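Model it.
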Amino acid sequence: MKKLLIVNNNLDTGGVQRSLVNLLNLIYTYYNVTLFVFSAQGDYRSLIPQEVEVIEAKPLLNLLGISQEQAKSKGRMLYIIRGVLAVYTKLINNYLPITLLVNSQPRLKGYDIAVSFLHNDTGKLLYGGCNDFVLKRVDANKKISFLHCDFARYGGNTLHNKKMYLRFDKVAAVSKGCKTSFLNEMPELEDQTFCVYNCHNYSEYIQKANLDPIEYDEKYLNILTVARIDEGKGIIRTIEVLKKLKEEGYRFKWHVIGDGDKSKEAKDYVESLGLERDVIFYGNQNNPYRYMKNADIFLLPSYHEAAPMVFGESKSLGLPVISTDTTSAKEMILEGKEGLVCENSTEGIYQSLKLIMDDPSMIDGWKFYLQNRAADNDLPLEQFHKLVN
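Modeled.
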């Protein structure tokens, strides 16, 4: 049985971590798997299979897996160290801080395959470091880096990061769109770059969706969004769209699950436009699936996305998706059957919502298709096996 090491920064709530947990639960019977995390704390820690050995980094490298706020619990000295490195990162870049923290960790030896599951981010954040750790502090016969981003546009498309990818044996992109975006920037790695889709825990989604599912007022079109509320998710422009639709006499409720640095701005904007009864913010929820079960449509109005886990989650629960045209949207949404992909603009969002409000029967057809569609992990599991063999 091959010895496989997978490296990630933490086990906090997030799409990459969710994908990681799902993968581990599918592969631990095939490989001798060790998970190395900078920080082993987080909501997903309890979801790791007992058969997977979990190793947490030493205190210094641990700082790369936690926020400055979380560092308070690590003691005054570590809190100060992280704060100094964070300031250095903002003023210059994160190359030296990541190198110092990564080199503080003893080498890991004796693995057949080492996988960095998280790509490096922009050089102005004290974040990432998984690629650095696998390349510098792990002895393995082969080294693989996963790519969960639109490499050409996400901010980490730097000469520093490009040089790092040249040192890996393989790169695994989580969608064809992500692969294409990467190879547009790194065409010399075409033979070493593969597609490995995200895995899903479909039975868990169904189980949680049936735990006290939310009942919506059927007099309205009930739109659901589950997303981090930040600049890239398009929340503000969608509020503008809904204001226009309300003025035109359409009846809807937009239910927004999530939080983020634009939450207050979004709520204030809703209030200023008099949409408090039409747009409802729920904050972060441990079980978003109970909101999906009875919603009419899932909306993801992002400016940029890679391969959102939420597409698979929504569709597995029979919930059609409307998405702006991002890297993998047309690949992941079968238009005309599972929903639609609209132009990535305020006007595109407006036209798509107006379309289904004018003809709600479209939603019924999409739901019928999704409810009769089988969902499984056969393809991503096959892709992963080929990647590591």
